[in-house]
Design brief:
The chain has four helices and three strands, in the order αβααββα. It is α+β, with helices and mostly antiparallel strands. It has one domain (14-65): Molybdopterin biosynthesis moea protein, domain 2 (Alpha-Beta Complex), CATH 3.90.105.
Length: 72
């Protein structure tokens, strides 16, 4: 019987989650603004107990999806 293959994500390394302060710094916005975005569901987040954390990939996706091309 063939050996079961684990899901692809099981072997992918997990990047450390960013706290709200670090994520806000990377985005160049205030902590309050980021908390407002989280509350308004404008950006994805991870709850770890009572803490709100942001995945680095979420920051990358957010920047990419909000980048506007220059007219030219």
């Amino acid at each position: 019987m063939p050996e079961a293959k684990p899901p692809a994500f099981a072997s992918d390394p997990i990047e450390p989650l960013l706290d709200v302060s670090r994520a806000a710094h990377l985005l160049g916005i205030s902590v309050k603004t980021l908390r407002d975005w989280v509350q308004g569901r404008r950006i994805d987040y991870v709850k770890v107990g009572t803490r709100v954390m942001i995945r680095p990939e979420t920051i990358r996706q957010f920047v990419t999806s909000n980048t506007r091309r220059a007219a030219g």
